[in-house]
What does this fold into?
Amino acid sequence: SSKNTHTPQPGALHMGDRHFWLWYLYALYVSAVCTYIPTFALGMSAMGHGGFDHSYGQGPADFECVGHTSFMCNVLSVLLIIAVYHNTWWWFTQLSLWIGMIFFYLSWWIAVSIDLTPELTNAMDILHATPDFWLVITLCPVICVAPVIIIR
It folds into this structure.
């Protein structure tokens, strides 16, 4: 006798409209955290003060630097959320998560190094020199994954 593997099992995470809206609201929450924390931590306000000053050059509050920090926070948060929701903390998942983050980081570094994106010249040097960048990269994934861990 073969078991029907396409029928959702009771209690599955993908069942019903309620789970759709919970995932949707959770995605909005993660997006808001990964947007506002880098924006305010790197020196920009929501009204657009600070940011790029042509007389002094590029700074950590530059739109491109904040955008890349926000994107890095999103990538890290999503990788960790996927691992927590699927309960797959075995060696292959761990290896895939860290290789994915390293690949993303290296591709950003290569794009900046070969002047593929001239507006991001020196962005990595500027961001790595500021402790705010490292605080944001650490804080955003923790805040994004915390509700999943607390609820479970």
